[in-house]
Amino acid sequence: MTFVFKPLAVAAMIGLALTGVAQAQSARQAARQQAAAAANAPLAGQTVKIAWIDPLSGLMAPVGSNQVRSFQFFAEKFSGPNPYNPAGVKWEVVPFDNKLSPAESLTALQSAIDQGIRYITQGNGSSVAGALIEAVARHNARNPGKEVIFLNHSAVDPDFTNSKCNYWHFRFDADTSMKMEALTTFMKDQPDIKKVYLLNQNYSHGHQVAKYAKELLARKRPDVEIVGEDLHPLAQVRDFAPYIAKIKASGADAVITGNWGSDLALLVKAAMEGGYTGKFYTYYAGVTGTPTALGTQAEGRVYQVSYNHYNMGGDMQKWQDEFKKRFNADFYTGSVIHIFRSLSEAMAKAKSTDPVQVAKVLEGLKFTSYNGEVEMRRTDHQLQQPLYLTRWQKADAKFPYRVENTEMTFALVREFPAYIASTPTSCNMQRPG
User: Known InterPro entries for this protein (predicted)?
Assistant: First the structure.
């Protein structure tokens, strides 16, 4: 028998063998990391429940549904000893539909407490968050030994970490003033912005967006004219055409809005159908429903300021891809990751899941996350983190993520380090004991 030496075939076999070796080494390394994590996880075997209190019905239900899936997705992914969970606890998320109502939220809070849940999270609606902050503070003062921590994932009224700051409240989103600081830092250098219209929801967040927009533009671009201002009912307007008509009549070349959910999706839909050609500077254009409403007509005309974006790469990109594959939806509430990460870090250091011990470590906590180093500022319990300005455009090789299965994405325009986005606080924190 004659053997014929075929270099390419041999090389291929060697390549396969080396690949197999590399995969085996990678698997062994992952196993060692997992074992090390388990050995160092002081609270492995314990279950920590988080009560999720947000809307699952009404006009804002699509946002709430996306966010409860986000919490449940990462509760599953981060449970048990792993590099993202040094405490080693198992996470469990218990959803409560608050119908975007403060009264319903207080009922849900009491139900969660009655079930022995010591951590709650909420974020849709600062009116709801304000009621929960006060209720949690009252409960904790009256029930020592049964304290509850409020993990605020998205309610951004600056007063919550200023005049109304409370020891048991921790905010993981950037507040309205921080986002407006970043937004106006960009807008001041845009010569095409001469006339601005302010359109916002008629509750504390919307009021704060308008307030800080006027203050910061007056300081950074005193030549810019505010040509109109409107506040509308939260989650009640179904036709924004009359508002678009007013904006067009004002001659505004830009709109600043803190609207979210259906209130933004229907607004931009009316703008596209009504032929408004100005730009939108937003907080929540990437949230469920709005990207589809933008379509291709809005290309290059809609901006969003946030603490994360759709094309960050790394772990965030992997998680976003996995989330989309599982739910056919986009993951955008990055504060969910920060909540699990910071809780686990604090619990590991405290060697306890008790809220009293965890709160002591949580304030002032620093750790490296998907958007760099973040810090839960001790003085007011406001997470300090970088912010990003993105613009709606067609997806490409540099910015490949397609939002809501469109051909479009939010492309990074500018990054603001934490020290630029940070704003001062007037908080006079009253600590227990």
Answer: BCAA_transport (IPR051010), Leu-bd (IPR028081), Peripla_BP_I (IPR028082)
